[in-house]
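Summary of Year 1 activities. Much of the first year was spent building the evaluation harness for sequence design. The harness presents a backbone, in tokenized form, and records the residue chosen at every position. We chose the following record to illustrate the format because it has been used consistently in internal testing since the harness was completed.
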């Protein structure tokens, strides 16, 4: 059993061996991400292993350490554990972290602040698609300048970046607006949109 404040030891990487029945896999891309994290913040979490060097927790960190050329790594040794405790912990260590939920709004605020500060978000493991779904990095719209009546040409070729479900919503709205003389579509812009071929123009302008 581990004591309240387990001692961290330094072991050569060759003394450690992954648990051969570990059911959690790490892709090469994930190993690269973990390695980038270690380069940024250092080794913040030791590997958990048995006396004989079998790793219970930290398989990804061990692989990343080898990738970075580490010859020694920090280790916490789980002494006096039964065989069943060791095997069960390999599953529990991965499964229990999966059971937690994200506070989406709090995550969006934190990421937005990091993006604004110029931090490399990829180091957090958050992907570009996830940033888009959270609408992170979408700047405030600039205030439109005053224009003389009838003069709208500066805004006819504007390009908008749409995120997540926004593209589908806009495309459906354009499709409805371009229906000619549909009795169920009282939109007065229908004839004008059809005449200007708004659907074709918009598809060329919108970035999904």
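For this record, the design step produced the sequence shown next.
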């Amino acid at each position: 059993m581990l004591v309240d404040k387990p001692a961290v030891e330094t072991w050569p990487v060759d003394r450690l061996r992954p648990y051969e029945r570990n059911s959690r896999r790490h892709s090469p891309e994930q190993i690269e991400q973990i390695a980038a994290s270690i380069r940024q913040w250092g080794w913040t979490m030791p590997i958990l292993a048995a006396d004989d060097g079998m790793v219970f927790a930290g398989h990804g960190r061990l692989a990343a350490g080898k990738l970075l050329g580490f010859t020694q790594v920090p280790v916490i040794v789980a002494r006096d554990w039964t065989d069943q405790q060791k095997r069960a912990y390999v599953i529990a260590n991965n499964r229990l972290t999966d059971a937690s939920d994200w506070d989406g709004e709090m995550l969006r605020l934190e990421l937005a602040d990091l993006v604004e500060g110029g931090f490399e978000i990829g180091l957090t493991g958050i992907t570009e698609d996830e940033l888009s779904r959270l609408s992170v990095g979408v700047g405030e719209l600039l205030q439109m300048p005053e224009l003389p009546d009838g003069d709208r040409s500066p805004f006819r070729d504007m390009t908008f970046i749409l995120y997540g479900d926004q593209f589908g919503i806009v495309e459906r709205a354009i499709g409805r607006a371009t229906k000619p003389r549909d009795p169920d579509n009282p939109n007065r812009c229908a004839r004008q949109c059809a005449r200007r071929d708004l659907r074709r123009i918009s598809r060329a302008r919108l970035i999904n």
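The chain has a mean pLDDT of 77. Quantitative recovery figures across the full test set are reported in Table 2.
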